[in-house]
Amino acid sequence: MPVPAASRPYTLGFWLMCLSSFLFFLSFNLLLPELPDHLTRLGGGEYKGFIIALFTLTAGLSRPFSGKLADTVGRIPVMVFGSLVCFICGFFYPWALTVTGFLGLRLLHGFSTGFKPTGTAAFIADIVPVARRGEAMGLLGVTGSLGMAAGPALGSWLATQFSLNVMFYVSSGVALLSLAVQGTLTETLPPAQRQKFSFGLLKLNWGEVLEPRVLPAALTTLLCLFPFGAVLTVIPDQSRLLGLTGSHKGWFYLCYTIASLVVRLVAGKSSDKYGRVPVLRWSTTLLAVGLAILVWTPSIPVFLLGAVVFGLGTGLNSPTLYAWTIDLSDPLRRGRAVATMYIALEAGIGLGALAAGWIFSNHATHLPYVHALSLLCVLAALGYLLRVPADRPAGHSAAADAVPEPSAEEVV
How many CA atoms lie within 13 A of 242 on its CB side? Predict the structure, then answer.
C-alpha cells in the first residue's frame, strides 16, 4: 500500500540538495570576516559597505532572470550556473589587487546567490509535500546555516594559519564540490514546461520581474533582511572594537548561527502547525529584541547575547518566509515567486549594508545608530504583520491543496 505523501520520509534528492546548499553557503561565507580588513589593506577602507552591497546588487538584479529560467529551462541548470560563478570568483580573488578589481569581483560574485538559491528553493518545493513545507525549509535552512556558521570561523583560521590566498582557493574548491553534488540530481521541472536555453529567454516583461501574489511575503522579507545587511557590514569592526580579534573574530557569527540552527531544529514545524503569519509575528519580535540588545553592547557577553537572540529570530523567520512565499505562489510560476522573494531579500540586505557603511563611517560611536535603524525596520515589519490576517496551518487551504505532490521519479 503506498505511503501517503505527507508522511513519506524525505527523499535522497532532498538530502543531496541540503548537502549542496551547505557547501554553497560555506564557500562564500568563508570569506566574510576577512574581506573588510583585506579591502582596507588595498586602500579602500571607506568602501566597506560595498562589500555586501555590490554582492547583493547583482544577486537582486539577476533574480528575475533566474526565476524565469527556473520555470522554463529547469531548476538544476540555474543552480549549476550559480555554483559555477562562485567557483570562478573564489579562484580569482587573489588576482584582484586593486580596489576597483576587488569591488568588480564582488559585483560578479553576486550572480552566484542570484541563481543557486532560487533554483534550490524551487527544487525543494517541487519534491516536498505541502504539510511538511515549513519543516523542509527549516531543514534546508539548517544546512545553509551550518555553512554560514562554519564559513567565517574556517575562513579566519585559514587566513591566520596559512594566508588569504589559501582561504580564497579553499572557497573556490568548496563551490566546486557543491557543483559536483548537483550533478547527481534529476530535474524536477515537468517536461511539458521545459525549453532549451536561448538568449530570447533573457528578455523580460514587467510581469516576469515580480510575482504579485507573493508581495506580502516580499515586503516582510525586505524589512526583516535590512538588519542582516547592516550586521554583516559592521559586526567585524564591532567585534574588533570589543576585543574579538584573530580567530575570535567569527564568534558573533558562530553564536548567531548556532542559535538559528537550534530554533530551526526545534521549531521547524511550527509554521506548518500554527500558520505562517502568527509565527512570523513572534519571529519578528525576537529580531527586534536582538537588535535592541545590539544597540547597547558594553561588553562581549552582551554582544554575544544579542547574536543569540537575533539568531533565534532569524532561525524562526527565514524558513517561514520561504514557506509563506511558496504557499502564496502559483505552482506554474514557482521559480518567479521565489525570485520575487529573493529580490526583496537582496534589496533589504543591500540597503542595510549601504546604510550601515554610510552611518558607521569607521566611527565606533556611530554603531548604536546602525542597529537602531535596523530596529525601526523590523518594528515596521511587525506592524505590517499585525495588520495581515492570520492564515490557516499549511495543508488546509485551497491554494495548498492545488500544489501537486512529488512523484516517485523525483527521488534523485
Answer: 23
Assigned C-alpha cell, 186: 534529476
Asked if the model's pLDDT at residue 79 lies above 90, the reply is yes
On average, the pLDDT of the chain sits at 84
The contacts of residue 390 (CB under 8 Å, 6+ apart) are 275, 277, 278
Dihedrals phi, psi of 334, to nearest 5 degrees = -65, -40
CA dist., res. 231 & res. 290, Å (int): 11
pLDDT value of residue 407: 36
| Cβ contacts of 401 within 8 Å, gap of 6 or more | 130, 395
Note the Cα 298 to chain centre separation in Å. Answer: 29
The total of other beta-carbon atoms located within 10 Å of residue 279's CB is 26
Spatial separation of the C-alpha atoms in residues 283 and 201, rounded to whole Å? 38
**What are 200's three cell numbers?**
530570447
Give residue-wise pLDDT tens across range 322-371. Answer: 889 988 888 878 888 888 888 898 789 889 988 988 898 778 788 889 99
Do the beta carbons of residue 123 and residue 76 sit within 8 Å? yes
Which DSSP symbol is given to 184? T
First-to-final CA distance of the chain: 22
362: left (phi over 0), alpha (psi -120 to 50) or beta: left
Say if residues 158 and 371 touch (Cβ distance below 8 Å): no
Q: CA 105, 106, 107 angle in degrees (round to 5)?
A: 85
* HSE (side-chain half, CA atoms, 13 Å) at 137: 32
- Report the alpha-carbon distance of residue 154 to residue 30 in Å, rounded: 6
Instruction: Give the span between the Cα atoms of 99 and 344, in whole angstroms.
Output: 28
Number of Cβ within 10 Å of residue 269's Cβ equals: 16
pLDDT of 393 reads 66
> Residue 105 pLDDT > 90, yes or no?
yes
- pLDDT score, position 5: 43
- Say if CB 337 and CB 328 are below 8 A apart: yes
Task: Give, in order, the Cα–Cα distances in Å from 1 to each of 4, 9, 12, 196.
Answer: 9, 15, 21, 38
Place of cell 525549453: 195
pLDDT at position 166, please? 94
Helix (H) or strand (E) holding 352: helix 334-360
Rounded to an integer, what distance in angstroms lies between the CA atom of residue 287 and that of residue 276? 16
